[in-house]
Amino acid sequence: GAVVSQHPSRVICKSGTSVKIECRSLDFQATTMFWYRQFPKQSLMLMATSNEGSKATYEQGVEKDKFLINHASLTLSTLTVTSAHPEDSSFYICSGGWGNTEAFFGQGTRLTVV
Amino acid sequence: QKEVEQDPGPLSVPEGAIVSLNCTYSNSAFQYFMWYRQYSRKGPELLMYTYSSGNKEDGRFTAQVDKSSKYISLFIRDSQPSDSATYLCAMKGNSGYALNFGKGTSLLVTP
Fold it and tell me: What's the rounded Cα separation, in Å, for the pair B106 and B87?
């Protein structure tokens, strides 16, 4: 299957600072990437859909000013958690695909805000 | 009612057993069905991908889709301790490819 690389795998940051998470499609061009959030023992919750060259589409209840998404190229999408707070601590996962092809997931990023 | 229902378990089986994991769904527009395996603190890994009713086999894994009943299953034969993980079903319609996930079933295979 296709490879999606996500970095960093773990990050600890202080409350009030910003954190950037990168998601790269290594062997295919992802016109669309998805960003998910997952709480312990819960399923994946879609946060936003990132389209190359245009603004991301956010799911209801997700603050677009807090979770900044940039998809500047066909192989890279970034999620920046701005002014992070402890309640933002979670597991963030990206996925990419094309057409009706199945989505391939990154390894996930565990964010801890202290 | 959620669009995709999946029993979260946990499900505990002895090594070598046949495991049956299931999901039901309510949206008849779903056409593509996937099963993912997720180890703790890792991203989901695609196991099976189907788009028609019937069975699809890959090694020890068999995916079954019954669109008339809106019911999908994943069977694992000769289960191994390394199969211990959370299994997520996911599905989507024809337009776009945002996935709809089940809650995931936690599986433990004991030696």
Answer: 6
Q: Could you tell me if A5 and A107 are in contact, meaning their C-beta atoms sit under 8 angstroms apart?
A: yes
Size of interface A-B (CB pairs under 8 A): 55
Distances (CA, A) of B2 to A34, A82, B87, B101, B103: 20, 31, 18, 10, 10
Residue B35 is encoded by which pair of tokens? 């099963």
Q: A5: nearest CA in chain B?
A: B43
Chain B residue numbers with beta carbons less than 8 Å from the beta carbon of A102 are: 32, 34, 46, 49, 97
Q: Judging by DSSP bridges, how do beta strands B54-58 and B61-66 pair with one another?
A: antiparallel
Q: Quick check: A60 contacting B, CB < 8 Å?
A: no
Comparing CA positions, the residue from A51, A42, A55, A57 lying closest to residue A93 is: A42
C-alpha B63/C-alpha A14 separation (Å) is: 44
- Are residues B103 and A103, on separate chains, in Cβ contact within 8 Å? no
For tokens 């296709």, the residue is A2
pLDDT digits (tens, 9 = 90+) for B11-58: 999 999 999 999 999 999 899 999 999 998 899 999 999 988 999 999
- Given a contact cutoff of 8 angstroms between Cβ atoms, the answer to whether B61 and B49 are in contact is no
